[in-house]
Amino acid sequence: MAVGERLSVDSVDPGLMRALARHLEHLVSHPDGGELHQLIEDAVLYCHENNYVNGTCVTYLHNQLLAYTRDHGHPAPMRLRARLIQQHLALYLPKPGIGAALKTAEPVPARAAPASKASAAAAAAKNASKPRPSQNTKTNPTEKPTAMESSATPESKPAAAPETPRRADPDATQNLNDLKQMLAKGMDELLHEREALARQLADATSYLKMIEAEREQLREELNKARKRARAGDKPAKKALGLPKRDVLLRQIEAEVERVKRHGDPLALALIDVENLETLIEEHGPDAANAVLNQYTSEVLGRFRSYDLVARYDKNEFAVLLPNTGKDNALRALEKVRKRVKESHFGLKGKNYPLPGFGGVLTFYSPGEEPHQMLHRADEALVNLKLRGQRELVVL
Questions:
Q1: Which of 47, 142, 272, 322 fits a disulfide with 52 by CB distance 3.0 to 4.6 angstroms?
Q2: From the CB of residue 36, how many other CB atoms can be counted at a distance below 10 Å?
Q3: 175-199 burial, b for 16+ CB within 10 Å, e for fewer?
Q4: Residues with Cβ within 8 Å of residue 182, at least 6 apart in sequence
Q5: Between the CA of residue 18 and those of 130, 192, 215, what are the distances in Å?
Q6: Cα dihedral 207, 209, 212, 218 in deg (nearest 10)
Q7: Domain residues of the chain, as ranges?
Q8: Is residue 85 within 8 Å of residue 20, measured between CB atoms?
Q9: What angle do CA 173, 177, 179 make, to 5 degrees?
């Protein structure tokens, strides 16, 4: 049952009901408004179950809100909202003593019925028999004025008593001070939230600028590699167009700082291309370069634009995946693995299946330093290669 249905509509002003409905809608949508909303609902339900009349119910609800505002354990915005609801209720609080005055007031006496014509004629005859004073009688100027004349003179009004200055109500002063404190605290909380949002926006903006710069650099290097391929030049060993290990470490440091501020997950994958030594023995070093260039241009481009792909070692790549949990990281690597199975590399006019890869996938642990995260993944990859395993291991 709604609040308006528990109060008598005939006695309660519709403006009060509309104001309460607006406040309740605001409390429902506010993340901290559930407790105050429940307090109002419980208070109105209590009045309804105990058959409180409207004035008594408004007084009860007003007192409940007063106790809520004086409890500093509640959020300042909600205490301020409770104070605003109190201001609406205060206009409808019953005045003390009015109910008793209405009970003791005497009924208004009924008007006398009009007299009959016979009684009116008798009264007129009686008045006519009384002697009237002569109009020609002159008054002696030395005589004192009669009581009637003296009563006609205007009487002097008594001097008005000076108004006594009103004393300040201590409860009103305390309520005003509480309201000021709640307003100040609420403004401080809003300012802190605004500053936090501004910092997050600045971090996101700087991160996007850095990603855009790296994309532009990779695009330029890829265009250079394509020009060399069209011109028939032999690709150099370092012409893969990928950042080196030092760039990777700096990026890990930046991402770890962001994780400490916002708590987002951070994933790191180290990928080891299989069987490159065998290809070199069978087809020469050009085969290894062709495989690595195919990985760079066709395979590793499957990662997101803001993921960092770097050259980690001779046959290894590193991929840093910001804001990525375990499930999303595994899905990304599975897409890359599928792309490898569908790809080929060309050598001396022939196409060969692109070798697969193994590797490790690890995640940042709270309190860990950036170089510790990289060292932990590197040790796991070395152990994996020593055991001769060609699979993806999740740490």
A1: 47
A2: 25
A3: beebbeebeebbeeeeeeeeeeeee
A4: 69, 76, 79, 80, 83
A5: 72, 33, 56
A6: -80
A7: 3-96, 199-394
A8: yes
A9: 115
Contact 386, 279 (CB under 8 A): no
């509509």: which residue's tokens? 9
Three-state DSSP at 364 gives coil
Class (C level, CATH) for 199-394: alpha beta
Q: CA angle, 153 as apex, 148 and 158 as ends, to 5°? A: 125
Strand-pair category, 350-353 with 344-347: antiparallel
Please write down the HEC assignment for all residues of 87-107: HHHHCCCCCCCHHHHHHHCCC
d(CA 237, CA 136): 148
Q: How far apart are CA 187 and CA 192, in angstroms?
A: 9
Amino acid at residue number 3: V
Structure tokens at 18: 């509309």
340's enclosing H/E stretch is: helix 326-342
335-368 burial: b if 16+ Cβ within 10 Å, else e: ebeebbeebebebeeeebebbebbbbbbbbeeee
Tell me: the pLDDT tens digits for 355-375?
A: 999 999 999 999 899 999 999
* 125's tokens: 């005859």
Structure tokens belonging to residue 181: 């404190």
| Average confidence (pLDDT) over 105-120 | 42
Q: How confident is the model at residue 326 (pLDDT cuts 50, 70, 90)?
A: very high
Residues 190-195 have a mean pLDDT of 82
Global confidence as pTM: 0.43
Distance between CA 9 and CA 323 in Å, rounded? Answer: 55
Measured in residues, the chain has a length of 395
